Amino acid sequence: MSTATSAGTSARTAGSTRWTASGMLLPFGAFYVMFLLGPLLYTAVAGFFNDSLVKDGPGKWVGTANYAEALGSPEFWSSLGHTLWFTVLTTVPLMLLALTLALMTDRFSRGKWFFRLAFFAPFMLPSSVIALLFMWIYADQIGLAQGVVKWFGVQAAPSWLGDPNWAMISIAVATIWWTIGFNFVIYLAALQEIPRDVHEAAAIDGAGPWQRIRLVIVPMLGRATTLVAVLQLVASLKVFDQIYMMTNGGPDDATRPSLLYIFQTGFTDGRAGYASTVALLLFLIILLISLVWFALIRRTEKEV
Amino acid sequence: MGSLTAAGALGGCSSPVGQAFTGSAGPASLLNFWHPFTGGDGAQLVTMQSGFRKSSPDVELKSTTLVWGSPYYTKLTLATLGNRPPQVAITHVSRLPTLAASGLLREISSSELDEHGLKPDRFAKGAFESAHHGGKLYALPLDTHPFVLYYRTDVAKKAGLLDDKGQLTDVDGPDKFLDAMRAAKEVTGVWGGSIATVKDPATCWRLFWSLYRQLGADLVTDGGRKVVMDVGAAEEALAFIRRMSAEKLIPPGADGDGGAITLLTSGKAGFLMDGEWQLLAVQGAVKDKFDMRTFPRIFRDAPYACAADSHAFILPKAPSEKAQRADHALDFSRSMLEASLDWAKGGHIPAWQPTAKSDAYQRLLPQAHYADAAEGAAYDPAAWYSGADSNLYRRFSDVVASVVGGHTRPGPGATRMLAAAKDLAGMEAPV
């Protein structure tokens, strides 16, 4: 009798737990469907029509013409190239620099809060503030950066945002300064989780500071590195706001990433169908790159 | 979601949130007005609106400022498509072809014009013509805003460029204009003139279009589907632009975010080529030590031309007459046109002839010194990819900026422009 009762209770508990879990997921699920799956589906469908921003309805059915136009368009490929170039310019320094700064900060036993605040503070600023700040720094003829290099004896200071060869580098530098705090905080937290005994054991075994960093600490940061690498890669591939505000893709389209290309064809030209096609292609490309990257990083983590 | 609906219900239909959800037309007294005016223009507009509020206490004017540029037109378009348009809005007439061809605007009939005292002859001719599409009137122009020439009177005086009335002597023709800038450069010791070519596609376009139109050349026809560009004229215009920077009279790159203006206001340049709407900014910095005139006539192949556009009132098409409230919108437009003198204080040339011909405007300086520019107004070519902050601006201006910086020679630059125009014209149009 008593066994039966307890069995019944536990069955009821298990059942209600199952429903509680689903119930708690429901609001998120609804938003997920409404704002992610729904629009994604719409994007996929719109790409087969000559959908227009200035007219009602999906427009004329064009089949795969938009795909043919995108894949055959030098603008599509050049913007993708700029996206990848920006990703390389930012992801590598953002990981290495963040790690270096975190290692240095971790060595302070007192006043650590100051460095944590100093490196993280820019990350709290909105992208519009960063864009304005750096537009003044980089401004031609009147900007701080041109003044500084002239002070160092450079006769013809580069036009930081006006020269196609410099513009992307300038934007990347601004982005690194702005976003490094996030990776820095993750690395610092991971560093603090390494038990003191490990450091002591390594020291007793006769490892010098450089050996300890290379052979003990960095390998133990594997999980943090995976996280930082994947988040940073995706963030860099999705770059838009600071470029939109600082150069709007210029000069000569030298800084136009794929997202801005989508924005310009979709919103400035009003060609929503074509923009949808490019958006879907970019989605697939980012997905693919992320999966490959994730697999690569995971493998190095396991090897350690 | 629930709370938003509740708020809509509580606030009634007059709250914008409530209207957005219910799609109701709102109370008959409500007049929504959208515009992209900030800074000096925004301040003048507030004055003009307060006049309307006083004279029409029964109308509840709700004025919304949105960010200038293509995002403004995207919002206007989507709001109209979604049956929630403002009753009246500002557009650049260069954007009118796309808006009108997509059926987003309500036509304004001649009987309505009569009724509201808005007879065609009360508008500047060029501006009024530009407010038409396919022979029908879709907008009421408020102004003409041309590309003009600013100059420092103190620099010009030292350079011996002023006549006995204190105005700039003849700077028309390619060599005379360059000579004038050369003389100014000797005084400033830095640059002769200045123009924003970095991060400023609009200014680059205006410089090119002014020169190109002075050569009498056309760009596209048939709503932008056919390219009739004169590559020779484009090369000639670009060659002149390159001469200015190659002879080091203008910087190879001046910043669009205030850099070009600062060169003038700080005395590092004697001339500035820019739109007249920078008037308040320049005035604020150098007080009365500057003057303005029409952009010089560099080429004589065609009637005088300078790139220009017009702000105009439009009536976005509403789902019902009740929501349209065209009478209110036209009353409001009329009231704003009559307050054009305030608008002119911000630099714009009034399209409203009673104001443009008034003594008060003709005494307004330096505004009166470039009022003639309205007659040479060269509007943008009509195409779905052209107009204020369009992709045509971007594509052409890239070439202009590159030529100024010395990265592209005029010949290949003109060829690139032709390729860009053909590329745009060949695309599947959204209208």
From TrEMBL, chain A:
It comes from Streptomyces bathyalis. The chain crosses the membrane at residues 25-49, 84-105, 117-139, 166-190, 220-240, 274-296. Its main location: membrane. GO terms for cellular component: plasma membrane. This is Sugar ABC transporter permease. The keyword NAD does not apply. Belongs to the binding-protein-dependent transport system permease family. It is found in: Cell membrane. Keywords: Cell membrane, Membrane, Transmembrane, Transmembrane helix, Transport. The keyword Transmembrane helix applies. PANTHER family: ABC TRANSPORTER PERMEASE PROTEIN, DIACETYLCHITOBIOSE UPTAKE SYSTEM PERMEASE PROTEIN NGCF. Residues 80-293 form the ABC transmembrane type-1 domain. SUPFAM superfamilies: MetI-like (SSF161098).
TrEMBL record, chain B:
This is Extracellular solute-binding protein. The lineage of its organism: Bacteria, Bacillati, Actinomycetota, Actinomycetes, Kitasatosporales.
